[in-house]
Amino acid sequence: MTKAIFLDFYGTVVHEDDAYIDMLCKRIASTASVPAVSSEIGRFWWKRFCGKCAEAYGERFQTQRALEIEALHETLASVQSPENPDELAGILFEHWMKPGLFEDSEAFFRQTQLPVYILSNIDRSDLIAATRSCGLALEGDRLITSEDVRSYKPRQEMFAEALRRSGVKPHEALHVGDSLANDVGGARMAGIPVVWINRKQKRLPPDCRPDRVISRLTELLEPQ
After folding, report:
1. Contacts of 163 (CB under 8 A, 6+ apart)
2. Measured in Å, how far apart are the chain's first and last C-alpha atoms?
3. Is there a contact between 30 and 141 (Cβ–Cβ < 8 Å)?
4. Nearest to 148 by CA among 130, 173, 174, 122
């Protein structure tokens, strides 16, 4: 029996920053001295950022904002673009603090009877600002961020902290997220049942096994 729901935030509850990333990559490509298409720039940027997150834990932890700027510096250098990484990152940070809420997310929070905990790789101040911007009245202990545990999903620290705060056992929780690596993979390692929210109708890889696949959060309210 499920006693608590753990939710990823960006891409699950609110819109991800994909449109902003795409716009910034096109801007970088237009000013680069080394010819590159925006999709290549995006892949390089994402790979560098993910690599930094994977290495940032414990004493080596850095905030997501700091890692984003580092990854941007390296991305701009790779194509010799004169763009200012702080300026570009500022555009992303503004979205992080004021993301758009999915319509079904509002309905889900209004109707669910279970305690909900947000598990996000974002910085704590950004998550607090974002939840307030979206009108989500979540108490402080219901928000669990990378800063709180000094590591990023799919590492286990965040899932362990969510279990500690909620007071439930792994099989009594349900984690919902849009990332196959961070959410599905991370929850699996923690022994927590996991739902993949597939808002973009992506194909599920054969080696990835969530317990359930949904396209909107309100499906969690429907009887199975």
Report:
1. 169, 170, 173, 190, 192
2. 13
3. no
4. 122
pLDDT in tens, 14-62: 999 999 999 999 999 999 999 999 999 999 999 999 999 999 999 999 9
CA 27/CA 137 separation, integer angstroms: 36
Q: What is the DSSP string of 168-214?
A: --GGGEEEEES-IIIIIIHHHHHT--EEEE-TT-PPPPTT---SEEE
CATH topology identical between 4-15+99-221 and 18-97: no
Quick count: other Cβ atoms within 10 Å of Cβ 60?
Answer: 10
43/47 Cα distance (integer angstroms): 6
pTM > 0.85: yes or no? yes
Mention the CATH class of domain 18-97: mainly alpha
4-15+99-221 topology per CATH = Rossmann fold (3.40.50)
Helix axes 38-55, 18-31, angle to 10 degrees: 120
Q: Token pair of 155, please?
A: 């590492």
Q: Domain residue spans in the chain? A: 4-15+99-221, 18-97
Cβ proximity of 65 and 93 under 8 Å? yes
Alpha carbon distances (Å) from 165 to 33, 116, 117? 50, 11, 9
Q: What are phi and psi for residue 216, nearest 5 degrees?
A: -150, 150
Q: Phi then psi for 122, rounded to 5 degrees?
A: -80, 165
Cα(138)–Cα(6) distance, integer angstroms: 13
